[in-house]
UniProtKB/TrEMBL annotation:
PANTHER family noted in UniProt: BLR5612 PROTEIN, SLL1039 PROTEIN
Taxonomic superkingdom: Bacteria
Annotated ranges, domain Circularly permuted ATP-grasp type: 69-445
Protein name, entry field: Circularly permuted ATP-grasp type 2 domain-containing protein
Organism: Paracoccus zhejiangensis
Length: 469
């Protein structure tokens, strides 16, 4: 399989990377190793880790960082930006619809069971319209590239997409270690993200809010795999990081306990899943949420970002219908393509997938983090047959996609420089306007030949550059 190399075309360097060629090719091995060690030390001192549970030992891992940046031209980014914003509008329109009149279901464009029998669909918020009609406020759209102008959406993350702290810290560390690169290249900044996020949250404050909104980040606590990011963003935004025990409901509002007495909270950027938000509405055994929170939310006393129930829009089964959402709600043709997807509850798709399992990627509908999936070409016969049995037991729990020829980007490895597969997660903010910073989180599959970029599966991260015109 041929892979598009984003930097090289044969011996020639593609235009976005032209100024990096001498930096890459003349860097001595000992200098590279010294800088790599410096980067790891910075990550360790700052505390940038992620957690892997269920493998024994210390779950906190240092995120692997690659010093070779990924570069986009301005024109490339503008095309992506338009497509991302279009997709974000369509996803929010879908959420407004399925928690309202469900016109797209009535029109037969999406099967009713995929919506109403979806475990992420929250019946408790049917008829509730959040401020400005925005349900998903931070959308992480995972993109892969297979050619110069060929970008595909791999999945949508409409609940609590993580990784933005890596995007910001990757840039900070690169600027600290290689300031000359930023003097010699005109690179769009990303450090305005926390300010844009706070402005987005404030713009969706409830109508009952009379003064400048008080925003907080609600975290499950320091044992959560993304706790570093929660505290990092709270610090940069200048808002309080709270746990469920720090909040309480009194009458029509939510309050935060402070040393100066209760303070009303208007906007909650929640970083915990729906079932744990309110033990009176969802899981009664949850110790992480706020009793009575959903009553206040439904009455318009507080905004929860992203809204409870937003997860129905990023289900992998619903994903196949997003291009249809764009046409149905916006009257436009999708600017970004989906990856071809087979849905295994359809007899013809099921037959095709089962006959071609060694050549396909199969994913659980509700899976994430690189788990619950089969990469056929990289799996043994025994692994394929074991996964076949899982599919036979519950076909509707799976989708399948072709093994994509993911683009590669030069990456510093032990033996020098080698191509490794990458994807991209830009972060789209939806409030009174739709905005995203120029760049995103580039994840890289550091294992040779691997197509799985998740950090929990051996992947790392890179700084992502968008060049100014």
């Amino acid at each position: 399989m041929n892979f598009y190399n984003e930097m090289y075309e044969g011996e020639n360097v593609r235009e976005p990377y032209a100024r990096l060629r001498s930096w890459v090719e003349t860097m001595p091995d000992d200098f590279r190793q010294m800088k790599q060690a410096e980067a790891e030390d910075l990550f360790r001192r700052i505390g940038i880790t992620f957690a892997v549970y269920g493998e024994g030992g210390d779950p906190d891992r240092l995120i692997p960082f690659d010093m070779m940046p990924r570069v986009f031209e301005q024109a490339e980014w503008r095309r992506l930006e338009r497509g991302i914003k279009q997709r974000a509008r369509a996803l929010n329109a879908f959420l407004r619809d399925v928690y309202g009149r469900a016109e797209i279901v009535r029109a037969g464009r999406i099967p009713a069971r995929l919506v109403y029998q979806n475990e992420a669909y929250e019946k408790s918020v049917v008829g509730v319209v959040p401020p400005r009609g925005v349900y998903s406020h931070i959308i992480g759209i995972d993109l892969v590239r297979t050619g110069k102008d060929d970008f595909f959406v791999l999945e949508d993350n409409c609940r609590t997409p993580s990784g933005v702290s890596y995007m910001l810290e990757n840039r900070e560390i690169m600027m600290r270690m290689f300031p000359q690169l930023f003097r010699n290249n005109r690179i769009e900044p990303v450090d305005q993200y926390p300010e844009l996020l706070r402005r987005t949250l404030e713009s969706v404050a409830p109508a009952k809010c009379q003064d400048r909104p008080t925003c907080v980040i609600l975290t499950p606590g320091h044992f959560n795999s993304a706790y570093y990011e929660h505290s990092f963003l709270a610090n940069l935004m200048g808002v309080e990081l709270v746990e469920g025990q720090d909040l309480f409901v009194d009458g029509e509002f939510v309050y935060m306990r402070t040393t100066q007495g209760p303070k009303r909270v208007d906007v909650i950027y929640r970083r915990l899943d729906d079932p744990y938000l309110d033990p009176l509405c969802f899981r009664p055994d949850s110790m992480l949420g706020v009793p009575g929170l959903m009553d206040v939310y439904r009455s318009g006393g507080v905004t929860i970002c992203s809204a409870p129930g937003a997860g129905v829009a990023d289900d992998k089964a619903i994903y196949t219908f997003v291009p249809e959402m764009v046409r149905f709600y916006l009257g436009e043709e999708p600017l970004l393509k989906n990856v071809q997807t087979w849905t295994l509850w359809k007899p013809d798709d099921y037959k095709y997938v089962m006959e071609n399992l060694p050549d396909l990627v199969v994913k659980e509908v509700h899976g994430s983090g690189g788990y619950g999936m089969l990469v056929g070409p990289k799996s043994t016969k025994a692994e394929i047959e074991e996964f076949r049995k899982k599919i036979e037991a519950d076909p509707s729990n799976y989708i399948a996609q072709p093994t994509l020829a993911l683009s590669t980007c030069p990456t510093f490895v032990e033996e020098g420089i080698a191509p490794r597969h990458v994807d991209l997660r830009p972060y789209c903010l939806c409030g009174d306007r739709i905005e995203l910073v120029p760049g995103g989180l580039t994840r890289v599959a550091l294992r040779e030949g691997s197509l799985v970029v998740n950090s929990s599966q051996g992947g790392g991260v890179k700084d992502t550059w968008v060049l100014t015109e």
